[in-house]
Amino acid sequence: MKVLVINTGSSSLKFGIFDLSLADSRIFKAEFSKFSATGCLLTSRTGGETAGEVTVRSHATSLAEAVEQVPAVLQNYGHEAFDAIGHRVVHGGARFHGATLIDDSVELAIDACGERAPLHNPIALAAIRQCRALWPTLPQVAVFDTAFHQTMPAAAHTYAVPKAWRERGLRRYGFHGTSHHYVALRAAEALHKPLHELRIVSCHLGNGASVCAIAHGHSIDTSMGMTPMEGLVMGTRSGDLDPGAFSFLAREFGLDANAVEHALNNESGLVALAGSNDMEAIEARAAAGDTEAQLALQLYAYRVRKYIGAYAAAMGGLDAVIFTGGIGENSADMRRRICERLGFLGLWLDADRNLVQAPADFSVVAVQAADSRVRVLVTRTNEQYMIARETAALLERSAMKSSVRIPVAVSARHVHLSQEAVEALFGEGHQLQLERQLSQPDGWAAKETVTVIGPKGNFANVRVLGPTRNATQIEVSRTDTFTLGIEAPLRPSGQLADTPIVTLRGPAGDHVTKGLIVAARHLHMSPADADILQVRDGDFVDIKVGSDERAVDFSHTLVRVKPGFVTEMHIDTDEANAAGIALRTTGELVLNDEDHEATVVTHHKAAG
Question: What is the CATH number of domain 2-144?
């Protein structure tokens, strides 16, 4: 499949043709950039990633004018023929959690989000409307920067503001999701580990900049908020700012909210601090003694470093930091500044290895020292490729047009014990006794039960599941954690690093152990069913339960494929209550498209 990708940024327009049947899939690339009153630069390349680039002057003085020139550029290079168009859209609100086929209602939804991303959504919508008019018979797909962050928990995306405001959509959404998603997958491949086993901080540092905490395959927090203005210092955006500044500026300068918002989006950040958003030029000026440039560098690095530390704490640890975006990919000095003082996390740069720019082939370069526990990686982002891939995947799934029913079972609180724990709780030499078989052939309910004791409360008669494991794991719901008085992380089964400690009590005594988790919802699947549904171990899918107006979508459900597994989804009691499920039901692997056909939605593939 050939896909035209349209990527409208805040200061550039990138577009290209991807032939996804080829390993070197981007067969044409072009970018309008460096706009001025007299025109801009048009850089183009045809023939794959290793081909040479050609730069010419264009008379387009704005992004809107550049969009109008796209068909002529494609025609000039002989790339008029393609099968679909994928559009980058920055803001999708709370509605869109995956790639979506564009129709009139989707256009209206994108327009409604325009005030939340004023530098991006309006021009993206203009490009969408122009492309739909130029190519009315081609399917066109919107891929949202906000979609990847729909997995953020309420504690991360909620603002502590009046309820009426929150009900109108005032919350944190996050952006650069396509980039964070892509580089996280590349990091997992480079580290030879499944993404769901890693805790990653992704640093997308360009004219727009954001940091994302990716825990076990999910975005759990990100620095941008309701709009792309929150968070880091950026090229022309302020980043974090006390909201009291609005009333201060109204009193001192007579500025209304629109004027302040414009200044914070267009006249702040590096431009305000150093008079330029060109990081290379700012670094040169700082080295020559310019104090304004020096402050800009210090402030920029400080803000990124602060977020990395905060997100390591939020995830309960850190396996890798990955740098991408124009600054993250190319500025060794900024990477060094950011990573200073992170040794307490076990993160150390290798000064020589850090003197690198991201490779043109999108490979991943490790720049950490030999004794660094945390990996530090550099790679080019490839949002356009991700947009092309998600566009093609959505259309291929649409063509399947098949409904797949999935058994859904409710998993109450339970424990898995090590043999050491069994003997501490039930006596030396004790072996777990079979009570009954479970749906998965390799698991069973034991006759034994334990009491789970927390600092605030406890649960008696919690069932032990066999057989024994190498490490003890206690699975509870989020509501259970409030009864116990312990904050437990949301984790895939077996991911027990940095989990809280609880006391288990049995007839032979107490056993103090880590391993308390809120188990991430997951879908056990046999290899045969996985082949039929075209999913792999470590993929994430959506499952829809119910078919009426009270239907519930369980998004980002982890797929676990193993010989002997019986295909079945497991959710906890909180999720079951939300969906009105008492014990068992069935759900559908769902497709987020205009016809609401039931088929697989794969959010990202496992590494490897």
Answer: 3.30.420.40
